[in-house]
Design brief:
Number of strands: 0
Helix content: 55-70%
Oligomer: single chain
Largest sheet: none
Order of helices and strands: HHHH
Structural class: mainly alpha
Number of helices: 4
Shape: elongated
Radius of gyration: 17 Å
Strand content: under 5%
Amino acid sequence: MMLQTRIPPPIYALVAGFGMWLLDAYLPLWVGLSSPWNRLGLVVILIAGLADLWSLGLFFRARTTPNPMQPQRSSSLVTEGLYRYTRNPMYVGMLLMLFGWGIYLGSLSPLLVLPLFVWVINHQQIFPEEAVLSEKFGDRYQRYRQSVPRWLW
């Protein structure tokens, strides 16, 4: 089975981040965090970026493809590190980076994009990815799916 999506997940994150900036610039709701407190968002972005790099490194260590556009090329199932807590730590990392960006922007309106990002990533990337991985790894992937949540919830 081939993955049918054509847009890499980081592009969705960049579009979401730009949308957040637009909302903050043109429709700021409850501006609650100003300098220097908004810089806590940069800490969240840094931590999320490190988590993404760690998760990416686990793919390289397992000698399998990290390319989300070609999960059919996966040669092994990565289930260690952050993958013990979420099946999608890189997408969780992107979500946390967007959350950090929202904190940095300082108003509430950018955070309204986050549920939309989760919905889009679920439907455009994760569900098709899971179908490919289910076909490729069978019962082993099904057991993993049953024991580890898709996100963190």
